[in-house]
């Protein structure tokens, strides 16, 4: 099994955590720099993660997790867990958009429809996720919990985390420190 990703991608980290303890090759690409050609060879979507297993290629972390779950003996997600994943993905996608905009020299605090929508989405999704954390809905270390962990640790790593949800989410992140694979996949050290 070969996982193509990067050590900094929160989406690739989800799959690395899901695969903690399962033998696999991890290909670490610098997708915006020197490994762009390799990324082009791996996926026309030009996004990571990507998984290859016995000739089957899979794009998108959500699809990869669905493919891996039965192989790892995990139960399918219920509808509430699918919704948790959708909230995490919505926040993560908007944060990636904000970070790439910043790196492109765009003022992300400008009064424009596009950036107003991204800011509103990250605020509302993080608030909703923090409420669910407080209600105990992320207490079990399953795939949605892994994804929330990766989101929160990544937005902290990128200095993007602020607002009233931040203390609850950071406390959640800190409680997950001992989970399998978390230390080994820390983007600050790997
Ligand atoms: N929906 C995708 C999102 C993956 C994604 O956005 N990955 C980022 C890296 S963190 C990426 O490859 N970005 C490349 C780009 O946007 O050009 C998934 O869940 O796998």
UniProtKB/TrEMBL annotation:
PROSITE patterns membership: GST_NTER
Superkingdom of this protein's organism: Bacteria
Residues annotated as signal peptide: none
The UniProt record lists the keyword Transferase: yes
Every GST N-terminal domain range: 1-76
UniProt-listed InterPro entries: Glutathione-S-Trfase_C_sf, Glutathione_S-Trfase_N, Thioredoxin-like_sf
Keywords from the UniProt entry: Transferase
GO MF, any single term: transferase activity
Name of the molecule in the record: Glutathione S-transferase
Organism of provenance: Marinobacter zhejiangensis
């Amino acid at each position: 099994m070969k996982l193509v990703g990067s050590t900094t991608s929160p989406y690739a980290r989800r799959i690395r955590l899901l695969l903690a303890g399962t033998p696999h090759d991890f290909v670490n690409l610098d997708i915006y720099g020197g490994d762009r050609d390799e990324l082009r060879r791996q996926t026309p979507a030009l996004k990571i993660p990507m998984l290859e297993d016995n000739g089957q290629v899979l794009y998108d972390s959500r699809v990869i997790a669905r493919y891996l779950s039965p192989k790892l003996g995990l139960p399918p997600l219920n509808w509430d867990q699918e919704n948790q994943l959708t909230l995490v993905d919505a926040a993560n996608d908007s944060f990636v958009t904000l970070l790439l905009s910043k790196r492109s020299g765009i003022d992300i605090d400008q009064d424009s429809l596009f950036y107003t929508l991204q800011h509103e989405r990250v605020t509302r999704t993080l608030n909703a996720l923090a409420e669910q954390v407080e209600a105990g809905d992320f207490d079990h270390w399953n795939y949605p919990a892994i994804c929330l962990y990766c989101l929160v640790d990544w937005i902290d790593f990128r200095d993007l985390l602020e607002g009233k949800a931040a203390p609850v989410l950071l406390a959640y992140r800190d409680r997950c420190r001992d989970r399998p694979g978390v230390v080994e996949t820390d983007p600050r050290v790997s």
